[in-house]
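User: Could you go from structure to sequence for me? I need the amino acid at each position, not a summary. Structure tokens:
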């Protein structure tokens, strides 16, 4: 069989140990390649949310906080995420948006440090850069933020550096930083390392403690399928929890919230990084979805994702060679996350034409189409369908209509 033929890809699907998990989703005929922006709902999520609203909340009312232990959802979900990222129980809590969690952890880390410099990647995700600009305004001359090209970061970390903060997998190209090497570079100079895992969690296996990472945040509405606006998570290595104290202090992170004491005393473990009331509905959805990742195992997910990425890039080269597409994602498996980005001057309109055919990826300005690889519900044969549709759209110019060129609010 030809290695990229439909028959060959179908044989890969037939032998795929993860194939049965597709039945846990309900995507109909849609070929969904946007799991890095908004994962689809697992069937278990609908059931779980119905139960939480109809039983836990409607029947339980205020009693739910104790009877259903809503109170400890941030740690319970956090411990589930910890198992996916190589962290220990009590090191992760879930809640707040990623932007808030970044602000929360970076502010706490800077407050605990005598050093002044913060280093980041100039191509970091916009929210990460905006959070740093706000912290710069807040801390004033106490800190100095340096945004550098990725290849200059390791060399720039020095004895003045309080913190380096990087996104592990680049949201545009899928380029993956070497977490072990960069964390070691920071440690070697006594600096803290914070990783944003928004495009990594649920996509690639992670070993935060294995790499001696200090701090991390991440998102649960992308690869983890937590739902639109699902909360983020915050990781603080156990060894720092007594010294990197929260500045965003709230009653829900207090050692005894219902003593209602006027004096602040932080809760034990990562709970201290929970400022306010846990998002019970949203966290329940994340809890339902995490079970699928535990069942599949991150190593099996990674193996399929890498294979799919390799197949997809080869298909693009063989099917779409003549249409000016440029593969923006690194070829080396250890240097890429779980999406493939294709550059094209008309990327926006071409993606709209694909979406009109029920093939859903997304567009990132100015010229990238992104295709997320999500082994829980995708088939190898889907990759051929995407490549053939793309070839047809480019060959016929079907993308070139006013409707496909019109920009929506959210891309
Ligand atoms: C998606 C994403 C976020 C999301 O931030 P929210 O505040 O949760 O919307 C943050 N950082 C990175 C790197 C992301 O990819």
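Assistant: Here is the amino acid at each position, in order:
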């Amino acid at each position: 069989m030809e290695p990229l033929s439909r028959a060959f890809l179908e044989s890969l699907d037939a032998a795929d140990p993860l194939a049965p998990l597709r039945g846990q989703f309900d995507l109909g005929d849609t070929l969904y390649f946007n799991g890095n922006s908004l994962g689809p709902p697992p069937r278990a999520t609908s059931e779980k949310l119905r139960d939480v609203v109809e039983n836990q909340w409607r029947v339980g009312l205020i009693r739910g906080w104790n009877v259903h232990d809503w109170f400890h959802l941030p740690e319970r979900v956090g411990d589930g995420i910890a198992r996916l990222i190589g962290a220990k129980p009590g090191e992760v809590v879930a809640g707040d948006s990623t932007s808030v969690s970044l602000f929360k952890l970076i502010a706490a880390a800077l407050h605990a440090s005598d050093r002044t410099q913060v280093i980041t990647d100039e191509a970091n995700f916009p929210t990460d850069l905006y959070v740093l600009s706000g912290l710069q305004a807040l801390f004033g001359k106490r800190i100095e933020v340096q945004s550098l090209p990725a290849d200059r970061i390791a060399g720039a970390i020095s004895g003045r550096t309080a913190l380096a903060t990087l996104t592990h997998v680049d949201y545009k190209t899928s380029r993956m930083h070497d977490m072990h090497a960069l964390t070691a570079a920071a440690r070697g100079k006594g600096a803290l390392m914070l990783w944003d895992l928004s495009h990594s969690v649920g996509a690639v296996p992670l070993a935060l403690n294995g790499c001696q990472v200090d701090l991390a945040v991440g998102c649960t509405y992308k690869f983890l399928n937590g739902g639109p606006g699902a909360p983020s998570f915050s990781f603080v290595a156990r060894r720092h929890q007594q010294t990197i104290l929260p500045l965003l202090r709230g009653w829900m992170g207090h050692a005894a919230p219902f003593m209602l004491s006027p004096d602040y005393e932080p809760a034990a473990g990562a709970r201290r990084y929970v400022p306010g009331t846990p998002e019970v509905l949203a966290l329940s959805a994340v809890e339902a979805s995490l079970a699928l990742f535990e069942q599949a195992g991150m190593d099996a997910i990674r193996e399929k994702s890498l294979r799919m990425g390799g197949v997809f890039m080869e298909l693009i080269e063989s099917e779409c060679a003549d249409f000016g597409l440029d593969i923006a994602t690194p070829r080396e498996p250890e240097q890429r996350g779980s999406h493939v980005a294709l550059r094209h001057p008309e990327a926006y309109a071409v993606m709209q034409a694909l979406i009109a055919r029920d093939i859903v990826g997304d567009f990132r300005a100015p010229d990238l189409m992104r295709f997320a690889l999500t082994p829980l519900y995708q088939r190898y044969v889907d990759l051929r369908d995407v490549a053939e549709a793309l070839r047809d759209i480019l060959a016929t110019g079907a993308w070139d209509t006013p409707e496909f060129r019109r920009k929506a609010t959210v891309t």
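One structural detail worth keeping in mind: The CA atoms of residues 291 and 348 lie 35 Å apart.
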